[in-house]
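Support reply, case 0932

Customer input (verbatim):
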Amino acid sequence: MPTTEIAVIPLIAGASIGDPGSHAAAVMRDIVTTLHQQDGLQQVHFGAQVESPNVLQMMISKNQTPHSQALLKIILIPTLSDWDSRQHHETFQASTAYQSFVKRLGAIMFASPQIHHVDFEPAGALAKAFSAPVTEVATFYCDVEPISDWLSNASKAVSRLEEQPASAGYLSSSYGITHEVVEYKGVKGKAAVIAIGWTNKEAHLAFRETQTFRENIGLLRGEAKAIEMHHVAMMAASQE
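Our regenerated output:
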């Protein structure tokens, strides 16, 4: 199963990755080039959180064919990367290319990144969620780990979301559990993550006021002791 690397990277003041002529954008182009030279890489998404524009996020997945042009999405959230497996990413981290990669990224970082991995499901849904005009990313932090049936419950919640009329603005969802123990607001353990694509942020906020939301949010919350949520607005770039 493909693995998604999620790296939350605080950016230095004025690092405008959305401005093609900026130093930050040039750094990101170099980083993307390096990433696409690595074995097991799938696709790359990056950008900054809508609520916190000084936070960068990337996502990386493998091209459909060896010679196809890579399509990159610039996403306004923390960093996500998709690999064929976690081992492929760890091999990259142990390489000399990674040292150069970190040095270049360090030029626009304010502090060290927070990195963890998630195997999102169902297959193919993550790309759809991050191709939406706006993506909600919610993380549910648990003591030790999420309840054993969290993935099943998430599937039920998504099924009920998909029953909503198209006018409600819902587009796609993908979800999974972190490989690593993570910590947020004093809660330490594995976390559950869901990415939901919407037509716009207002559609998501309106859905939160519905009976369907109230009846099903418990399936996602489970026994979470803390929740973090943000939205993403997307831009696209191509890798030559």
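We compared this against your earlier run and they match. Two observations from our side: The chain has two domains: 3-120, 125-234. The two ends are 27 Å apart (CA to CA). Please reopen the case if you see a mismatch on your end.
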